[in-house]
Amino acid sequence: NAGVTQTPKFQVLKTGQSMTLQCAQDMNHEYMSWYRQDPGMGLRLIHYSVGAGITDQGEVPNGYNVSRSTTEDFPLRLLSAAPSQTSVYFCASQDAGEETQYFGPGTRLLVL
Amino acid sequence: AQRVTQPEKLLSVFKGAPVELKCNYSYSGSPELFWYVQYSRQRLQLLLRHISRESIKGFTADLNKGETSFHLKKPFAQEEDSAMYYCALKTGANNLFFGTGTRLTVIP
Fold first, then answer.
1. How far apart are CA B25 and CA B101, in angstroms?
2. B41: CB partners within 8 A, 6+ apart
3. What mean pLDDT value characterizes chain A?
4. What does the pLDDT read at residue B52?
5. C-alpha distance from B40 to closest chain A C-alpha (Å)
């Protein structure tokens, strides 16, 4: 199992550009989530999904969209990037019967 | 609203010394707490969960509802314990609310 994979590893955007951060898991986990990690602020939940076709907002959803068309994939879209979205983004997944969240390696995003 | 407080951003201890990473929480529901760890160049991973009351890599953590704390302890620190440690509170669904983290450095 590859676990949770994220692409790209690093991305530079200009203000106003759009892009999609990819996240995939091969563990058949129903729950998936996106966090952003900023210095001094820990990890904050952006969006989450409890299954295919179901998504909901987390603590800091503004500026981000998500969809969950399959169990495996949970992409995060930035429609119009802003410098405030410069951060490290982590995707995670969890099985319904477990207490452990499995994290991806992260995507480092720089918005100029 | 929920809150997870880790008062120490940085903590340095000597090898072999005891270590305690503090975590306090505020939550209106029944708390479920976790410690996650991120070693250098590795993914964030679960270290401990309060429900299992287990000891992992020599670390233990006890949930104290009276003091609303979930401090992480180890009697003898090792160099390989150097990492970033996050305390996390489970809220709705499987959502985790993280503290700001403590970077532990074990000095040889």
1. 13
2. none
3. 95
4. 77
5. 12
Angstrom distance (rounded) from CA A54 to CA A56: 7
Q: Within an 8 Å CB–CB cutoff, is residue A43 touching chain B? A: yes
Of A89, A77, A97, A80, nearest in space to A20 by CA: A77
Other residues' Cβ atoms within 10 Å of the Cβ of residue B22? 17
What is the pLDDT confidence band of residue A98, given thresholds at 50, 70 and 90? confident
* Cβ contact A43–B86 (<8 Å): yes
pLDDT at A104: 97
Helix (H, G, I), strand (E, B) or coil at A24: strand
The mean pLDDT value for A40-46 works out to 91
Report the residue of chain B nearest A55, measured CA to CA.
B93
User: How many residue pairs from chains A and B have C-beta atoms closer than 8 A?
Assistant: 51
Q: Are A103 and B45 in contact (CB under 8 A)?
A: yes
Q: Residue for token digits 């532990």? A: B104
**What is the mean pLDDT of the segment spanning B33-51?**
93
CA distance A51 to A68: 7
The confidence score (pLDDT) of residue A99 equals 84
Q: Residue A15 and residue A111: Cα distance in Å, rounded?
A: 6
